[in-house]
Amino acid sequence: MSGSNLCTPVPRSHDHVSALVDLVQKRAETQSVKSSRAHSSIKMTAASLAIVSQSGESLSFFDLATGLRTAQITSLPAEPHDLAHDTKKNLLYISHTYRHGHYFAHGDICHEVSVVDVEAKKLVKSIDIRPFGGPHGICIDLNTRLLYATVETGFENGGGLIGISLDAHKVVKSIPSDGRAHWLTITPDGKKAYMSNMTSPFVSVLDLEKDVLLTKVKVTGSNQGTVSRDGKFAFIPTPSIQPMGLEIQPTIEVIDTATDKIVRSIKTDLGVSALHVTSRGAIIAAKYGFEKGADPTALKAQAGRLEILDEVTFERVGEVESGLFPLSLLSSPDGKIGFAANVFGGTVTVVDLVKMKVIKTLDVDTTRKGDKKFHQGAHGMVYLA
After folding, report:
1. Given pLDDT bands bounded at 50, 70 and 90, which one contains residue 241?
2. Residue whose C-alpha is closest to residue 95's, from 164, 155, 157
3. Cβ distance 136 to 97 under 8 Å?
4. Superfamily of 21-384 according to CATH
5. 290 forms bridges with which residues in the sheet?
6. pLDDT tens digits for 187-226?
7. Which InterPro entries did the record assign (predicted)?
8. How buried is 34 (Cβ within 10 angstroms: 0-12 exposed, 13-18 middle, 19+ buried)?
9. What's the farthest any 2 CA atoms get from each other in the chain?
10. Are 260 and 314 contacting, i.e. CB atoms less than 8 angstroms apart?
11. ∠ CA 312-318-322 to the nearest 5 degrees?
12. How many Cα atoms are found within 13 Å in the side-chain-facing hemisphere of 220?
C-alpha cells in the first residue's frame, strides 16, 4: 500500500520541537479560505505543514494558522511517498517507491530518495540507493545522523531496512527483514525497529546497534505501527489493507518491546491503516473502508475515521470523521493537534485532539491527473516550526 509517514520515531532529543500551537475560542461562523475548508478557528505561531502528493508528484507547504498553501514544488520524480525532516540542516527527504500505482498494483520499483532545501523550497539532490529498491517508510535519528528507510528489494529474501548517512548521503548500513518491508517504527532509544512487511505474516524486529534481524512476531499482515512514549510497547495494526472487506478481524497488537511478545490484542470495528502516539499519550488510529464489490486493485475508498485511544488503558477517548482513506498520521509537538493525510481524497484532516473536533481540511491535491490510473493526492507529512 502506498502511503506515514508516517514513521518518524519518538525523538530522543527534544531540542528541535517546542509547543507551537495555542488553541483559542471557536468562532461562531465558519470561514472558508483558499486551499482550506475551515470548521473552526485556531491560533498558531509560525508553523507549517509539508505534505507530499504522490500522484501529483509535488510537495506543498501550508501555513497552519491560515490554512493557505504558501509554496509548492512540482515535477518531483515519480512517485513521491513518505517524508522526513533533518532539523539540523533543514532538509526534507522524500522516498520514491514506485513509478506509479500502489502496493497491490504498481509500475517499476524506484531506487532514489530526494533531498529538498526547506528554506529555498528547491529539490537539491537525489540519493541513489541501489542495489536496494522501493524505499517507502522513512524516519530520522538525529543522534546517529541516519535516515532510516524501508526497502522492498535488494536483500536475498526480499526487503529490509537501510541507513543513509545524513552527512555523506550514502547508504552506510543494511538489515534484512525477510519480507517486503513497507513501514517502520523505532523505539525512543533508537535501539530497535519494528518493521511492517504488509502482507507477510510477521512483523520483523531489528537490532539497530548490531544490525541484525532479532526475531519475527507472528501477525496476520500489518500496517504502519507506532511505539509508546516510554518505549515499552509497540502497537501494530493488523492485518494488512483488506480491499475486499473485513475477511480477517482487525486488531491492534500490543508488543512488549522487552520480550517481543504480543501481550494484548485490541479488536477494532474497521480496518486500521496507521497508528500514531502523540506527546500527550493519545493513540490515533486511522480507520478505513472500501466500497463493497469493487475491484480490489481499484481501491475504491470510503470516508475514513480517526479514533483516539488512551495509550495506557486503551479506552476510547473519541472519534471524528476524516477523508478518503486516512493513511499518514502526525501530531503537533504539544500533542493538541492531529493531522491525517487522506491519500485517495487528496486532503489533510486537521483535528483538535483536546475538544475532539475537526478544525479544518487542507485541500492538497484533490483532482486526478489525466495520465494517472490512481489518484493518491496526500501522503507523507512533516510538521515544520
Report:
1. confident
2. 164
3. yes
4. YVTN repeat-like/Quinoprotein amine dehydrogenase (2.130.10.10)
5. 301
6. 999 999 999 999 999 999 999 999 999 999 999 999 999 9
7. Host-pathogen_enzymatic-act (IPR051200), N2O_reductase_N (IPR011045), WD40/YVTN_repeat-like_dom_sf (IPR015943)
8. exposed
9. 60
10. no
11. 120
12. 15
**Residue 84 · residue 90 · CB < 8 Å:** no
Supply 254's cell numbers: 500490543
Q: Which three cell numbers stand for residue 28?
A: 461562531
Residue type, 278: T
- Cell for 72? 509548492
Give me the DSSP letters along 73-116: E--PSS-EEEEEEETTTTEEEEEE-BSSEETTEE-SBP-EEEEE
129: which residues sit within 8 A by CB, 6+ positions away?
A: 111, 112, 113, 135, 149, 151, 154, 162, 164, 171
pLDDT tens, position by position, 51-106: 999 989 999 999 999 999 999 999 999 899 999 999 999 999 999 998 987 777 78
pTM for the predicted model, two decimal places:
0.88
Query: Cα–Cα distance between 158 and 172 in angstroms, integer?
Result: 19
Domain boundaries, the chain: 21-384
Gap between the Cα atoms of 367 and 385, Å rounded: 29
Q: Is 124 in contact with 133 (CB distance < 8 Å)?
A: no
Triad 291, 296, 302: Cα angle to 5°: 25
Q: How many Cα atoms within 13 Å fall on the side-chain side of residue 111? A: 8
Point out which residues pair with 277 in neighbouring strands: 283
